[in-house]
Structures are given as structure tokens and as C-alpha cells.
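Protein modeling request. Please complete all fields; requests missing the sequence field cannot be processed.
Requester role: graduate student
Desired output: 3D structure, C-alpha cell encoding
Chains: 1
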Amino acid sequence: MSGHFTHDFPESGSVDYSDQSTNLDATAEAELRELASRYPQPRSALLPMLHLVQSYDGRISPRGIELCAEILDITTAQVSGVATFYTMYKRKPAGHNHLGVCTTALCAVMGGDILLERAKQRLGIDEGQTTPCGKVSLERLECNAACDYAPVAMVNWEFFDDMTPEKMDELIEKLMNGEPVVSPRGATITSWREAERVLAGFPDGRADEGPSAGHASRLGREIAEERGWTAPDPANLPTPEPKEETK
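Delivered output (247 residues):
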């Protein structure tokens, strides 16, 4: 019996080495080295270092891979292996804004697949692509851990809750026209590269902009406070009886 293995991830591992362009300069190298110095084991800094590479180059660039390997004293193959494992690291340049639509489980039931198709039609691109103007890239996202607001989308990792096709149309129009966009949770959207810099570990001073959690996420706690419910005190919990050993 003969045949060959096929899979659904054709882009896996495909860093574009034909594009050698980079914005990584002496300042970027100093910041990468600073990140490495924050960890007892420098190699632990690889994930934030890759986010920083993306903040400069808009993708995981060949120079970014080489520089991370040099600083951490590991091979470029090891860096590339990590960079191509996680979907947050882009093999090709992402747009000025990165739009993600969740289509997992509850979001799918609530219309996530419809929203993704709507985004494809409005942007004229498929998932994993960027508009020719470079303004927006599109991604199908796995669970955003925001099921209480399904279906959800994200722009530069900021939540857009309780989405509808009409809300998606309005959001895309603003992104394509360069208009200010504010997440329903309060955060004003910056660029994807700026968001990547924050993920790398260089705060922009805006962490407290907007609520830390929305009403649906706080509802259980609010009900408990209204009714005077509290969790049991661990010190007063009964000691469980020891189980008898069985032969």
C-alpha cells in the first residue's frame, strides 16, 4: 500500500527566506538582549523576543531568527522551530491591523463562521492573507476564552464582543479607512506592531485603559455580592476520612 501524508497546515514552517528585508537595528538588538537578561535561563526569553522582532519587521524575519539565535546561543533551527509552531508568529507580513475571528465551539454556534465569511467578502481576502493595501490581515482564531461574549473577534488582540455581521461591516470599514477604533471593553486600538511590542514586554502605559473584565464575566461575582454569598473558609472545611486500603 503506497501513498503520502497530507495535512491542513500548508504554511507550517515556511518562513519566507526570500525576503531578507529588516528594520532590526542596534536599538532593536539592545532591546532583544535586555529581554534575554530578564530571565535566569536566557532561552526562556525567546517568545517575547520573537514578539519584539515582529514589532520591528511585521513578521518573523530571517534576520530576526539569526539575531535571536546569536543572543541566546542556540541554533537558527531551534528558533525557527518555535517561531513556526505558534500561530501568533507570522511567516509573512501582517497588516497594519490584524483582525481575528473566533470559530471554535460556542463562537461557531453563535455565528463565528458567518462572521469570518463576512470578513473575507468585505476585505476581498482569505484567512491568512493581508489586503493589497497592507491595512488589514485576517486570521481564523481558535478559542479566545471569551465564550460569555460569543461570537467574538479581535483586532490586534483587543476583544470585540457580541459581534454581528453588521458590527463586522462597521469595524472593517473603520479599519480600512484608518478611522479610530475602540474596543467595547474600552481600549483604543493601536497598530498590530505596537501591540506586539507590548506583548514582548515593553508596556505602553495603557494597561488600565478600559475595564479589566466586562459585565458578563463579572455577573457571577456581582450576584454573589448582592446575596452575601462567600466561598467556604478552607480552615473550617471538614477533614476527609482516610480511605481504606483495598487488597
